[in-house]
Amino acid sequence: MPASARLLQKLKETWGEEVTQDLVAWVSEAQAVNRAELRELADLYFARFGDRLEERIALSEARFEAKLEAKLNERFAVSEAKLEAGWGARLGERIAASEARMIERIAASEARMDAGLAGLRAEVASQMRDQMKWMFVFWIGTLVPLAGLIVALGKAWL
Known about the structure:
- The chain is mainly alpha-helical.
- It has one domain.
- Helix content is 96%, strand content 0%.
- It has helices at 5-15, 17-157.
- The radius of gyration is 62 Å and the shape is rod-shaped.
- The N and C termini lie far apart (178 Å).
- The model has no long low-confidence stretch (mean pLDDT 86).
């Protein structure tokens, strides 16, 4: 800071021109040195402050990321549980309904097969009766001439 004109005038009157100039030069030099030292000290403080600030920001970011990740994981778990509960129940219901329909279809198919088999058995039984009738007719048709032949041959030998 520059010295006021009045102060310089008083110093010149009291100590003289040369001493006043030396004193002003010394004060200016001390002021410049002090400013440089103060600037270096401020730079050191600002550098240290910057390092601390970066550390704290990194720590805050890490904490924030950890909290955010924990909350996201929790929300994902809750959403996944809700989704599984909703879809799982619906899927279970659909599977159960499909199984019930399949069981009904299988039972209906079995009933149709049983009915078809019963009809087939009845038809086979009917054809067996018809076959037995025809077999009886053919046996009789064979036995009557054979009996006549035996009688005729028996009379011829006797």
